Request: fold
Amino acid sequence: MKIVNIKIKELGMKKPVKVAQSVANTKLINSIQLTLLKLQDDHSDDMTEIEQLEHEAQLLSEIEHFFKNFLKLSDKQIEKAEEELDPQELSFAIGEATARFQGATDKDIQQLRERVKKEQEELEDPLAEKNASEKSE
Reply:
């Protein structure tokens, strides 16, 4: 069975964790990805405030379970990450762990970071891309 080393600096990991590419870990990866996709797919406009809070609580519970069982983080490390990271950073940390598990290289991760950063900037300012292209002309 192949072992991959995973170290996510945003989570305060000082040393890489050895993670076996086992069926159990594949199930954990699939579960967290499925949860994230389901929550993205939900139409929050159609949901009550209670339903939105329930979904958020479910997601946070799944993330904690993932970090404990997949990355072997302690409760203290998880608490620190939850206090210091915004939801986007937390989501990216999960994405990086998933990508590393699936064999992504440092270069792949850097490209992913750049793409996510660009997408986030465009979401924050949809006119930024248009303004940048107008300035270059």
